[in-house]
Specification:
With 284 residues, the chain is mostly beta strands. The protein is built from 2 helices and 21 strands.
Length: 284
Amino acid sequence: MVTSSALAQIHSPTLPGKKQIPQRRAKTTKLFKAPEFYPNCLAIPERSDAGIWIGQQKLKGIQASGSGVPEQPGPDQVWLMDWNGKLLKTYSSASQVTSGLAVSDTSLYVFANNETDYPPPYTGVHNLDVKTGRTRWVKQIPLGGGGTHGAQWHDGKLWIIASRLNCMLRVDPEAWTVDYAVRIRNDTPDTVRSHDMTFDDQGFIWLATANSSKSYAEGVQGLSKYDPKTGEVLEQVTLEPGSCDPHGLGFYKGGFIGCDAGHHPGWPDKDGPGVGWIFRIDIV
């Protein structure tokens, strides 16, 4: 269901050339490795130091053949790890080519980019009981479904990066309707790609960005800071050379947390120094 209020509240930021966007730099610090490849998304509970959830993206079909690697058998995993890298829980998900993860007090939201065998067979959102890992339901991403590059639970709502719409959607988890959206800006060479999103402790949105590249050596990774009230891009942060490649993104104790999947579209498999790592991002 598409509501008129949702459409009215899709904000587009200031057009290019209106004002200069401040630029900053950031560096990454490795924390620990995921239990297996490919750690493509993460979720950090809002009110808990219990740990960090990591979502696995196993390569299948065209994703595997395009990377020149064999298909990975079995289901995608979701891991709960403590902040020292100890594995606490492992859940199996029916999601395939998982590329988004969010966590509330009661649910894990696992996002598939491939059609799955869980009935009905379509791409979408898998809701898992956070205590048991049992799958409760699977639904399409609102406003037309399609794939995603990330998600976030914030203030009782589920935010979803809807790739087909190129927007960050705020979804009511009970009604499964969109009540707000922020358009993603990809209007500079270094921000033509986007991955996961998160909120900082002041309520600003941060989006992981990248350029179009064919290898880690050509890549430029960064973060775009958005005002969620206006959709305006307030700041662009570029990661220092030699940094990890953020796919998943979260915020924890004043800093950003990322995971490097080791699978970046257009790159050779496992290209870069941060492959498989969970890491901290600090603006310098």
